[in-house]
């Protein structure tokens, strides 16, 4: 398709009308409960990109077809310039030849969620709104999303953020980050699991009567405003690798709700030089079982050391199925594997001791998959996707090292601020009542 042809977005459940991307971003979830997907995934020529361009320039070129015909199209370069203010470097790892680390933790909250959250905030800020009441951004988080969204929207006029997180199930530093913003950002510590938080947010967003009183939008990985920008760092680095080495780059992606991995797959489907994609999961086996040949069986999440991946019902699975409608073809295309807590610990400890490289528990799942590939004699070029900085998960990582980790400056600043979170029961009614009392 040509770049000027408008692109519309349909629901994965096909029972809502197709909309422009602005509407899809403003709504989060489609009215029928499905996820918005482009009616066709655009294709793009690798030659369209400026080889000297920044990641913001890559993002602008890559995402232009997704915004074609939309009021935000003229703003896209400004949105990308505002969102992509930190780099996503590809760094060689000393452990094995042809092994790289795609570092996605150089943003304000030290996890890859900063890319999507900042892009979404830059989009929402520019969208005209019918009423002038503040927009409430609801976000369920297993730790990292909430902080990234809080940081991205902090002190933006006309918006307030309500973060729900499972009390006691995020790291002490994550909890501190979530409660440290104040102003227009409120943290609610929910007496339940991440899946409860996610369900409560979905119920509130789908409640038309509540929406009439409290205008709401979502910032979870179901939002296209978060998913699309995540494609940029894959495109940027895969293109660079391909220009330098003449081959596609393979990626191992730590996976929970499948937003990060799906972004990588969409880049490949667009025709850019991404090679094989492998999903590294923690003990939550929904995806590994499916790709192992079982029926898709969403289930309750189990708590692991890689808590941002504690997902039993990956929300982007609907988009994955839409992208690859033939199940047997899909199973051939992807590989998913579980890594248990003992192996996560062992991977962190071994690499720190032998190579002085320290990984967060999520990144360690992907590193373990690379160790296995190398042990089996695989010599291809693989990039392990580092989704967060190890210092964010000090309670897991430091005891394995036996010494404290250096904290990145942005994280250190956030940890110096005081933090507060309000308690909330894990029921849809509790959130409904809180929003009505505090939100209208
Ligand atoms: C969110 C997150 C993941 C999982 O990403 P998905 O897009 O949900 O698959 C992995 N690692 C870290 C550190 C995260 O914050």
Structure summarized in a few sentences:
The chain is an alpha/beta fold. It has 18 helices and 13 strands.
Protein architecture, described:
It is a single chain. This protein is α/β, with parallel strands linked by helices and 440 residues long. The protein has a domain at 87-111 and 225-406: Rossmann fold, CATH 3.40.50.1100. The protein has 18 helices and 13 strands. The chain has helices at 21-27, 55-67, 76-83, 113-126, 144-153, 172-179, 194-205, 208-213, 224-245, 259-269, 286-291, 317-323, 327-333, 341-355, 361-375, 394-401, 409-416, 428-439; strands at residues 9-11, 36-38, 90-92, 99-103, 135-140, 159-166, 185-191, 216-218, 249-254, 274-281, 335-338, 382-386, 422-425. Strands 3-4-12-9-10-11 form a 6-stranded mixed β-sheet. The chain has a 5-stranded parallel β-sheet with strand order 8-5-6-7-13, with helices on both faces. α10 links the parallel β9 and β10. α2 (55-67) crosses α3 (76-83), α4 packs across α9 (224-245) and α9 crosses α10. The longest helix is centred in the middle third of the chain and has 22 residues, at 224-245. The chain is globular, with a radius of gyration of 20 Å. It starts with 8 loop residues before the first strand and ends with a helix. The mean pLDDT is 94. The structure holds pyridoxal-5'-phosphate. Pyridoxal-5'-phosphate is lined by residues 111, 113, 144, 221, 254-261, 308-309, 362, 387-388. Pyridoxal-5'-phosphate (PLP) binds at residues 111, 113, 144, 221, 254-261, 308-309, 362, 387-388.
